[in-house]
Predict the 3D structure of the following.
Amino acid sequence: MRILVTGGCGFIGSNFIRYILQHYKPASVTNVDALTYAGNPANLDGVVEEHGERYEFFKADIANFDQMDALMTEHQFYAVINFAAESHVDRSINSPQNFIHTNVIGTSVLLDCARRHGVQRFVQISTDEVYGSLGESGEFTEQSSLDPSSPYSASKAGADLLALACFKTYGQEVIVTRCSNNYGPYQFPEKLIPLMIIKALRQEPLPVYGDGKNVRDWIHVKDHCAAIVAALFEGKSGSVYNFGGGNEIANLDLVKMILKKLGQPESLISFVPDRLGHDRRYAIDSSFAKGELRWKPRHKFKEGLDETIQWYLDNQSWWEPLLERAGRY
């Protein structure tokens, strides 16, 4: 059984490749990644040595029909799992075009090629950001209305709707998963948790948007990977599954936790003008996924955050070269 993973050199995609190769021995993975700024081959160091021919990599753009068609002609894939996405909200505000290209056109191309070549399953990896913002109470369910606030989340909502339309129109075996904020190893340094860890280590100001009271629900990336595998093998076609960690915390409180763990003063916190269209609160109701897929998150947030901080302490040689790359894009 061969699986096509797109965006497999990114944060969640690379963790997923490691997870499925370790836990499902019959599975083989073809990884397609365009290696834009957040795609890092070093995220998969050691995978070839450990898994040999069960893993292969192709550099390609998922929005290039000829490249994707040729790849699916060469291999008979059981499933496509589409992680490939431009995903940084700030970058989408400054330059939405790249997000439309990858997140919308790329998803459309993959769906078309998968259908033409008889791929049995298509899993579209999405985000809770497509639902917009919550008030002080309530949680997003799979029936919540889509109300994206940024070009990024709008492009992901568009991709989700394309995928679900292929199920309704063509009977294509499509599943959409939407998760809360991920954390863990190999996350690109511009994201909140690694950014704050690195700046605290360097005793630089830690930029916090607005009043810092925006709330996010955090899920460990390995729990998310387990959820995706469950959706791949147990999910019902045409369904949407929400995955959350049940760990709501305000951004400011999270930053203070990181500073305390690293023994740095809260005086390093620097409040900056709020992000345009900044959603106030996200919270995920995962009860449908837990019941249908027999899945639940296993990482407790404090322990998972401590482990993540330690990973960045132990892997400075991984993230230091990325800081220069981040500044160029």
About this structure: The chain has twelve helices and twelve strands. The mean pLDDT is 94.
